[in-house]
Amino acid sequence: MAKYIFVTGGVVSSLGKGITASSTGLLLKSRGFRVSLQKFDPYINVDPGTMNPYQHGEVFVTQDGAETDLDLGHYERFIDENLTRDNNHTTGQIYESIINKERKGLFLGGTVQVVPHITNEIKQRITKLASKQSLDVVICEIGGTVGDIEAQPFLEAIRQLRLDLGSQNVLYVHVTLVPYVPTSGEFKTKPTQHSVKELRAAGIQPDIIIARATKRLPLEARNKISLFCSVETEAVIDAPDVKSIYKVPLIFHEQELDRLIAAKLGLPTNPIDLSAWKDFVEREHSRTETVKIALVGKYTGLKDAYKSVLEALEHASIQEGVKLDVVWLESSELDDKTLEKLTEVDGILVPGGFGIRGIEGKISVAQYARDKKVPYLGLCVGLQVAVIEYSRHVCNLEDANSTEFDKDTPHSVIDLMPEQKNVYRKGGTMRLGSYPCVLKPGSKAQSYYGKEVVFERHRHRYEVNPTYVEELQASGMEVSGVSPDGLLVEIVELPDHPFFIATQFHPEFLSRPLKAHPLFAAFIKEAHEYVLRTQIANSSMHKI
Ligand code: GLN
């Protein structure tokens, strides 16, 4: 039977519950347990697929095509497992399924209520994961903060589960904030005490408290939390701010969090092997040279909107041994002055995006990268703008465009596939999830992957219009990856350019700390070589 760890949060949001859950997952996996992570989001949207990146950050796509919370990205990156739609649930989905059952008459005339119907649905979704995948431990994160109205049914469900499954099988971990007040030079434990009080009001006594603070907590503060919150001092784990999230598991391990969990849940204390992770963190901190990568998007500086892309760049940079400096460029405000900034970068990345805003800016950037031979990696819309640019300026197809941006374009080089043309419903209706891509022998893409067929995750509606493929190829743009039936373009590249690769899929979702994605790795390697080439060119200019 599986063991369950429930992670809740208190005091404020954005404390890093997701990183806490992921780090715990990594530690338990490194002790040899089969672990999975699950997130419950208390909002009423069915999934985050239709939500604004300003509100919700990126939409993480699982291999089975679910549009999920960005925490699932952290989970996958830390525990190095592919998750599915069973790993993320929302209030919207839970109500949707209960209402559908009610409409089918499955409640036989009974009154449908939050307790027990909604709570039973939540409990069933929590336990289903372990039984489907025969797991040892399920770590289940409850989104939001205790005290939120929306979170109540979830807290009630996890409270009941300790009763249903037995106290030896269920553990509650509460993540709270311990603010530091500089004027008195003290860490304040009162907000944590109040948060635990709130949790207790829902019938839950935490077993472990993760105390988020700017610095390491003095023993005195941990003792105080222990006394007032009724948790042993050794179970008050301190989680100071760190430069890199990848250090968090090591900090937890130092405080023996994994041993403590194993003891509390009666799990065998298998030996732990964190050597590969430690090496990775060491490499992360021993980089000297820097590569500058321009990230050209609509949500400048909004790290959460490009979470997986930034992580994938970071993994590749660590593998290459260089520091990463991301230069944010707002694609809707690209003028000559901002384009100037491109002269300072060693690589350009155009990530995915929807809607017309900023598109012409992205097209100019793709043109710049092609002309000036700056390494270019285009992802999804980043491929579409590269194709539009090439069609306009190399194939001379005037006003070529995507029908997403110009319905009446004379050359719809990017267009909807017939099966997408009559889709009006929003949410889950794009081409989503993992699809095979056949690589062209001898292409750069194929050499980077070192494989013939790869599986990559998608999230888009539009495709390269098959009518124009021959023309693009005849003018020198190589299609180096296609769907197995040969109809859909998956990767394009420019053979006469040091690195110009664009993908219709989102490779960023598959990058893992210890396994940088081959295309990101090659991109950063080329950007690094670009730095070296420019240095040599500059020094020989000086000599002249
Ligand atoms: N807007 C484009 C499409 O739907 C690209 C989407 C993306 O970049 N994820 O096809």
Structure description:
There is one protein chain. The protein has 544 residues and is an alpha/beta fold. The chain has two domains: 3-91 and 127-270, 3-Layer(aba) Sandwich (Rossmann fold); 287-533, Rossmann fold. It has a nine-stranded mixed beta sheet, sandwiched between helices. Helix 1 (17-30) crosses helix 9 (248-254) and helix 5 packs across helix 6 (152-165). The radius of gyration is 25 Å and the shape is globular. The termini are far apart. The mean pLDDT is 94. The chain binds glutamine (GLN).
Do you know the CATH architecture of the largest domain? 3-Layer(aba) Sandwich
| Number of DSSP-assigned strands | 23
Count of individual domains: 2
| Top CATH class of the largest domain | Alpha Beta
> Between the first and last Cα atoms, what is the distance in angstroms?
74 Å
Question: What fraction strand?
Answer: 15-25%
Mean pLDDT: 94
Helix/strand class: alpha/beta
At CATH level 3, the topology of the largest domain is: Rossmann fold
Poorly predicted segments: none
Strand order of the largest sheet: 13-12-14-15-23-22-21-18-19
Q: Supply Rg.
A: 25 Å
Bound molecules: glutamine
Which helices and strands, and how do they pair?
Layout: E1 3-9, H1 17-30, E2 35-41, H2 53-56, E3 60-61, E4 67-68, H3 71-79, E5 88-90, H4 91-103, H5 114-133, E6 137-142, H6 152-165, E7 170-177, E8 180-181, E9 186-187, H7 190-201, E10 208-213, H8 219-229, E11 236-240, H9 248-254, H10 257-265, H11 275-285, E12 290-297, H12 307-320, E13 323-330, H13 336-340, E14 347-350, H14 359-372, E15 376-379, H15 381-393, E16 401-402, E17 412-416, E18 431-439, H16 444-449, E19 453-460, E20 462-464, H17 469-474, E21 478-482, E22 489-493, E23 500-503, H18 518-543
Parallel strand pairs: 1-6, 1-7, 2-5, 2-6, 7-10, 10-11, 12-13, 12-14, 14-15, 15-23, 16-17
Antiparallel strand pairs: 3-4, 8-9, 17-20, 18-19, 18-21, 21-22, 22-23
